[in-house]
Every structure is written in structure tokens, then in C-alpha cells.
Design brief:
The complex is a heterodimer of chains A (229) and B (219). Chain A has 229 residues and is mainly α. Chain A has 6 helices and no strands. Chain B has one domain. With 219 residues, chain B is an all-alpha fold. The chains are: A mainly alpha (229), B mainly alpha (219).
């Protein structure tokens, strides 16, 4: 199992190297946007990975409430943290791209706002995990995770309506209508590579969480024995 | 069980008036500060009032919500609830209804003040405003009561509640503000937002009732 995981890490690094090469050197430069368009190869895969992480977080939370096993709680914690990290990348790379292309850093468009609210919800999840006391953390966090997940489609719907009522003038350029095959190629390799990075980070973080809990349990047992003496 | 708890909370509130007084004074302060900060004319204020009103009520509601479970901690009352055979959801509904009544009373008392300070006059029909107020208040209060039960188990519990309540409440707040603004200015139909609030209320009331038992019994 361990060798398998190490092999997976090596594979991920190789994938990342290849996809970075594809994205930065092989894919053609976009005509109107220029080099800045290449950020797309990081931006979209990060968003996808964050989405995967948050979905894993939701599933793990439901399983935890049902089975009450520490493993799924650890997975929930790990996926939320990795998801927030990727979501942060999305929120940082987005404005870097938007500034030269749209002329503004930020607009309250449906997708942007939903991503931001998603980020806020999962940061509050991490804050709750940090502040909750002792053995109750898991249940409280799992409950909040379910609330967050229910909230996301509602946020998206409401913001969409909000913006279709008040169209924003800056959203001029059409979406990636008809991507160059070479770009598509680079994009899919990046998507795969980022997903693998997300999985590696989640597994590592999951193991760390399990170890931390084991250490804590050992400390508690030691303290109990010390008290009995 | 729901009725007993609700009546008990209402009676306690009636005798002490702790929650309603602190909420009222807090909301009053927010109104005055906003008035200084933005110094709006009658026309402007109609446009921004939806936001002002709901931000003021949201902040004030947090004051009451924080006290929801605090008094049950004394003398281990919450533990007594836990071992009693009464259904946990009855307790939750009682608390949520209690908070709902407090906040609605607050809104009814504060509404004239808004009219006075911001020279508000609604272009749209009044009954729509009342519908929005009721649905919106329930949206804030049902999640708020639930999250208050979460945050009471954490360190620094008073700060925790807004931190977890506000992100989840963003769509509800958006719906309330936009519905209120479109009714006040009479420029757009609030129908979509009212439906949105109804969906939000139904969805989150269901989630709350589904999960409250686990949270109450969390050890």
C-alpha cells in the first residue's frame, strides 16, 4: 500500500512536470489575450479540484454522521483544508487574469461570487473545527459541512438571478468558444495533474490527521494511567 | 413539549426583557450610526434602506440568538433535556419559534424608527413587505438557533456564531435585501426573491430538524 502510494506521488510529479511544460511551452499563445491566457491551465483545474475536495468533504461528513467512524471525519477535515487551498488559488489566479483581460480585478458575477461564498463557508468550517472543544468537534463540523453543501446551489441560483437582472458591462468577451486542440490537450493534462495533486495532498493530510488523533489518544491514556497511580 | 418550552422562554423574556432590550438598543445604535455614515436623502434612502434594515436586524438577531442556549447551560438543564424522553426537535422548534417571535417584535418596534429617520415610504404594497419580513426572519432565526447550539460547544462561543452563521446566510440576506428594495422602490417584482426565501426556509428547516438530534447529543 505504501509503495503504491509513493509510486502515485512519483507519477503525479511526472504528470505535473509534463502538463506544466504543455501549458507553458507547447500550447499556442492566445490571439487576443496573449500570454496571460495561460493562467487558464491552472485556474480551471484548481477550481475543479476544489470542487472535488468539497464534494468529498460532504460525502465524508454524511458517512461520519451515519457511521461515526474517525476515518471519515479525518477525511472530511483533510478534504476541507485541501479544498480551501485550491479555492484560494482560484480566487487569486482569477483576478490576475481578469485585470488585463476585463480591465477589472473583480466583478460580482455568478461564478465569482459563488466561489467566494464557497470559500467563506469552508473557511468558517475550518474555524469551527479549530474552536470546537474536544470530542464534539466531529459531529458539529459534519453538521456544518452539510449546511454548507445545501447552501451552494441556492447561492448560485440567487446570484445568477441577481446578475441577469442587472447585466454587468465588463463581461464582454465570450467564453472559450472553440478551444484550439493544442490548448485542449494542455488543459486536460493539467486537469489530470491537478486532480492527482489534490488526491495526494488529501491522502497525506488524512494520514496526518489520523496520526494526530492517535497521539492525542495515547496522551489521554497516559494521563489517565498517571492519574490512577 | 414545544409549547411548554416556548411558553417558559416567553415568560422569562417577559419578566426580564433581557434579549428584547439589548436587541432594541443595539438595532437603534446601528440605525443611528448608519444614518451618520451615509447621510442619505429620501430618494437615496429608499434605495439603500433594504440593505440597512436587514443588516441592522441581522446584527441585532445575533445578540438574541447568542443567549438562546446560554441559560440552559446553568444547572445542566441541557443535559436534563438530553436524558428526557422528549423529542429533541420539539426543543429545537420551541427555541426557534421563541427567537422568531423576539425578532419579529423587534422588527415591528424598529419599523417606525426607520420611517422616521430615513423618511421611508413604500411604493409597492405593504403586505409584500410583511411577507418578506416573516420569511426572512425565519431564514435567519432557524439557522441561527441551530448554529447557536453548535457554537455553544466551542471556545469563545459568542464570536463563533456570526462566523458560521453569516456565510451560510448570504443567499437569504441577498434575497431579503433585494426583495425589500424592489418593493420599496416599486421598480421590480419581488416574486422571485420571495420564492427564493421560501425555498431557503424549507430547505434549511429540513436540514436543521434532520441534524439537531445529532448535535444535541454530540459528546
Amino acid at each position: 500500500m505504501k509503495t503504491l502510494f509513493i509510486a502515485f506521488i512519483v507519477l503525479t510529479i511526472a504528470l505535473l512536470a509534463y502538463s506544466t511544460y504543455q501549458g507553458l511551452f507547447v500550447a499556442p499563445t492566445e490571439q487576443t489575450m496573449g500570454e496571460v491566457q495561460r493562467i487558464f491551465y491552472y485556474h480551471v483545474p484548481s477550481a475543479w479540484t476544489a470542487g472535488v475536495c468539497f464534494f468529498v468533504n460532504f460525502l465524508a461528513s454524511v458517512v461520519y454522521l451515519w457511521k461515526r467512524n474517525p476515518a471519515s471525519d479525518a477525511l472530511a477535515a483533510a478534504s476541507a483544508e485541501v479544498g480551501v487551498a485550491f479555492c484560494t488559488i482560484v480566487l487569486i489566479t482569477g483576478p490576475i487574469w481578469a485585470r488585463p483581460v476585463w480591465g477589472i480585478w473583480w466583478t460580482w458575477d455568478a461564478r465569482l461570487t459563488t466561489t467566494l461564498v464557497l470559500w467563506l463557508i469552508y473557511v468558517s468550517y475550518l474555524v469551527l473545527r479549530r474552536f470546537a472543544a474536544g470530542g464534539q468537534t466531529q459531529v458539529l463540523a459534519a453538521a456544518l459541512a452539510i449546511f454548507g453543501f445545501v447552501d451552494v446551489p441556492i447561492v448560485y441560483m440567487s446570484i445568477r438571478w441577481f446578475r441577469t437582472q442587472h447585466p454587468s458591462p465588463v463581461m464582454g468577451g465570450g467564453e472559450n468558444s472553440g478551444l484550439d486542440p493544442a490548448m485542449l490537450h494542455a488543459f486536460f493534462w493539467n486537469l489530470l495533474a491537478f486532480t492527482c495533486v489534490g488526491i495526494v495532498l488529501m491522502v497525506l493530510r488524512y494520514r496526518l490527521q489520523m496520526l494526530e488523533e492517535k497521539v492525542e489518544a495515547t496522551h489521554a491514556a497516559a494521563a489517565l494511567q498517571g492519574g490512577a497511580r | 413539549m414545544t409549547r411548554a418550552t416556548l411558553l417558559k422562554d416567553l415568560r422569562m423574556e417577559w419578566r426580564s426583557k433581557d434579549a428584547i432590550n439589548s436587541m432594541l438598543f443595539f438595532a437603534l445604535l446601528v440605525v443611528v450610526i448608519f444614518s451618520f455614515a451615509f447621510n442619505p436623502t429620501a430618494e437615496e434612502s429608499r434605495r439603500i434602506a433594504g440593505g440597512l434594515i436587514w443588516v441592522a436586524f441581522l446584527f441585532a438577531a445575533v445578540v438574541a440568538l447568542n443567549q438562546t442556549w446560554a441559560r440552559e447551560l446553568r444547572n445542566q438543564v441541557l443535559d436534563a433535556y438530553r436524558v428526557s424522553p422528549a423529542p429533541p426537535n420539539a426543543l429545537f422548534l420551541a427555541k426557534a419559534l421563541g427567537n422568531f417571535l423576539f425578532v419579529v417584535v423587534l422588527e415591528a418596534l424598529m419599523a417606525p424608527l426607520f420611517v422616521v429617520f430615513y423618511e421611508l415610504r413604500s411604493v409597492g404594497p405593504l403586505w409584500q413587505l410583511i411577507v418578506v419580513a416573516l420569511l426572512g426572519t425565519w431564514a435567519l432565526v432557524v439557522n441561527g438557533t441551530f448554529f447557536a447550539a453548535l457554537s455553544i460547544r466551542t471556545r469563545s462561543r459568542e464570536i463563533m456564531l456570526p462566523l458560521i452563521l453569516f456565510p451560510i446566510s448570504i443567499p437569504a440576506l441577498l434575497a431579503m435585501v433585494d426583495a425589500t428594495t424592489s418593493i420599496l422602490t416599486g421598480e421590480a417584482s419581488p416574486d422571485f426573491w420571495i420564492k427564493m426565501l421560501a425555498v431557503y426556509d424549507v430547505a434549511f428547516t429540513a436540514v436543521c430538524l434532520l441534524l439537531f438530534e445529532s448535535v444535541l447529543n454530540a459528546e
